[in-house]
Amino acid sequence: MASEAEKTFQRFAAFGESSSSGAEMNNKNFSKLCKDCGIMDGKLVTSTDVDIVFSKVKAKNARTITFQQFKEAMKELGQKRFKGKSEGEALEDIYKLMEGKDPATTGVTKATTVGGVDRLTDTSKYTGSHKERFDESGKGKGIAGREETTEKSGYVSGYKGAGTYDKKK
Question: Is residue 160 classed as helix, strand or coil in its secondary structure?
Answer without folding.
Answer: coil
